[in-house]
Amino acid sequence: MSSNLLAAETSPYLLQHKDNPVHWRPWGEAALKTARENDKPILLSVGYAACHWCHVMAHESFERAETARLMNDLFVNIKVDREERPDVDAIYQTALALLGEQGGWPLTMFLTPDGRPFWGGTYFPPEPRYGRPAFADILRQVAHVYHTDKDKVGKNVEALSDAMARMAKPEPGEGLSRAQVDEVAAGALRMVDPLTGGTAGAPKFPQPVFFRFLWRSAMRTGAPMLKLAVTLTLDEMAQGGIYDHLGGGFARYSTDAQWLVPHFEKMLYDNALLVDLLTEVWQTTQSPLYAQRVRETIAWALNEMRVEHPDDGSFAFASAFDADSEGEEGKYYVWSRTEIEAVLGDAADPFCRIYDVRRGGNWEGMTILNRTASARAGLSVNEADLAAARIRLLTVRCERVPPSRDGKVLADWNGMMIVALTHAAVAFDEPAWLTAAQQAFAFIKRHMQVDGRLRHTWCAGMARHPAVIEDYAALSAAALALYEATGEADYLTAARTWVDLADRHYWDESGDGYHQTADDTLDVINRPKVVADHAVPSGNGVMVDVLARLFLLTGEDAYRTRAERLIRLFSSDKIQYLLSIPGLLTGWETLERGLQVVVIGAADDPAARTLCRTAAVQPLAAITRLAPGAALPTGHPAHGKTAVNGQPTAYVCQSGTCSLPLTDASALRSALMTG
After folding, report:
1. Is 595-674 in the same CATH topology as 12-167?
2. Closest Cα to residue 582, out of 171, 185, 232, 166?
């Protein structure tokens, strides 16, 4: 007799469903075999632990005995955590898009017993509403069609399979030119909301990969409107309700066009990518607001997202915090004016004036703290008093029932946070952040590799699930960031090792590009090559930057050649397509305009550290820290260069030619800007 089989899983999301009356099965061959043996279609439900609408559908449908009975009678039911299996999610999200439907979570797909999709949607209500049919009606209709109209199902299957196969084999282009990339940047600028930043309309997502591309384009072209588009977006987000003004950290997105009402879940990847972008933009603008948000968000990550290994005390970062607490979205974060007055007393009025706290609230009778209006109005404030008030309110908030935390450690998301911590540590001269990045990196190396291969997740003491290309890309990027920040050769070795593994198991020798899944991942129906950036940057896009940096750091042409092959594979003359791949375009610029900076000097020499911090302001610089007397690879253009008169010395190289030796930070800065 069938039963719910999720109790043995480690995923917090799957465990949320272990007591459902639905006979859920985890993804895998065993579930597919059951479907084949019983000639039952598969109902695939994909979500994640912090997903609000996943919780809604669970309460409305999966916890109801009557709905569960219908599901169990008609389908083999499979539950997937999209964070554990991004490859499975990507395949069926693509299928849904090909059906003309908007993607998202919960994803509800109907598959043949061999796992091939024929119809689907996202959230379905228990009764008809929101223009959507009732879930029970959908279940009956789909099962009826599957058993009575095999030809129709077969045609859908073949059409979707053919379309996904074509998408997995992009036709190579001629490569990219600066003029072409500048045109893409101009097109991207037209997508930005001129009033509140972000892309026009609602909901608004942070899209840090998109805005990093715009920022790099602004730095390349000098176009003030590109720069303004980025700073406007960051200003509005940093002051808006999407930011947690008490505890730090950004929510996943805003449901409105003003960045006021967040979807309250907090994801590690959003915060990692935003910290990195804020740091990069701060290095040019010196905005105190950006510096504050970087510091607060890193403090939140180190305090709230830390996951320790039970055996050795090493730590990495958890995945997410839920949007809901006590069954209500946002309850943990919102306030009434009366509550704030009770906590702050006489200090309430100035706080409420700055943070938009009003009688009746600004959202469903309550207040989402934000500084948007007061910042625009330029209201005078006493920041020290506001900081003291925030601490008092946070202390009270901590007494509330908090949202649950998804404690899974994901390799790629941790890679992003390691990069962000490392870059911020150098920019802000915060050694503790660099130490934290090194510790998280050590956790991944020690606990998330099995037989020399990465695993995608670690949870409850177990490393599980095959790595995807995003894992190898993000962690290679993390290793290179740490190498540039410390000069420790082990990090460069780690990056080279992981790139070698990616080349061996993910690279398509017959058609170029990296598959999302390895050649020995056997439980998926195809192996797509993902290049479009969505919630997280694509593995192929990140790999272009990784390969470019490896070329710049080592001088080995093989890395450049592979990066060029990637760019040609995914290049196109269609601007709309190129707008979807800002990560790859950013990597292209590293390859085409990257600088090789060598700093010769003792690691503990303050002058050497100053030169390194100066070089780090230029994001296109690949920095090699070289101890006096050490040698660079023979393929590096600075091979044989030495320090001047025993002083820490820098060289800036581009296109095989190096500058004169530079011992002064201002001279180095000038060389970097003219390179």
Report:
1. yes
2. 185
